[in-house]
Each structure stands twice: as C-alpha cells, then as structure tokens.
Amino acid sequence: MGTSGRLNHIGSDGSNPCDHAKRFGVEACSENVARTRGDPTETRIVYQKSFAHCMAMMNKAYNVIGVGVYYGKNPYPTYWAQLHHKADKVDSSCHPAPGEIPPAPLYTTRDPSTVVT
Predict the structure, then answer these.
(1) What is the pLDDT of residue 105?
(2) 3-class SS of residue 30
(3) DSSP state of 29
(4) DSSP one-letter code for 7
(5) CA–CA separation, 105 and 108 (whole Å)
(6) Which of 14, 73, 84, 105 lies at 20 to 30 Å from 97 by C-alpha?
(7) Phi, psi at residue 112, to the nearest 5°?
(8) Is the dihedral of CA 74, 114, 52, 56 positive or negative?
(9) How many CB atoms lie within 10 A of CB 74?
C-alpha cells in the first residue's frame, strides 16, 4: 500500500486479506487498513470511529492481532495494517513471567518521545 499509494483490502494483484497474511506465514482473514499522519493514537481513534473497523478489533472471536506500519510521504505518510486471527494456542514466550521486569518500551513512531509501554 505504502509504495503504491493505494489504500484497499484488495491488492493490485487481486489478492485479498487472507492472501496478504499467508505471504507472511500467518493465517488471518480479518484486516483493518488506514492511512494517517503517523500517530498511533490517531490511528486507533480512526479505527474506533469506523463501525466496521471497531467491530473487527473488538470481535471476541479473535485473540491475536498483528500490526504493521509503513512510513511514506505526505500528506498522509503512514500506512497501517492490522490482521486479526483466532489461535488455539497463543505464543506468550516474549511476555515477562510474573514478578519479572517487563521489556523496554517500544518506540512506535519516528518521535522517540512517543512511547508505548
């Protein structure tokens, strides 16, 4: 999306969200896409204000989410994609054990002062 400037669930090659996920070794068919100025909070609000996007994020049938981001050019330089999936077993190997110190914050934008913990 980011390199083509297209914002669509159907790829330029006719692929659908299920196909997109398979390219990355994931089985998922629910997808949210957005084009924003880059702020993760702004993007979440955009998704929440859209009934269909909000329903996909909050669907209790899904227990796994994957998020991708591409930083492009103005006026809407950032492309976001979410994939939603139901897994029988969720990999929690990167989660800290009870009592352990959580991992370092993740910087999610070009501005390191914006931190997701």
Answers:
(1) 56
(2) strand
(3) -
(4) -
(5) 9
(6) 84
(7) -65, -10
(8) positive
(9) 6
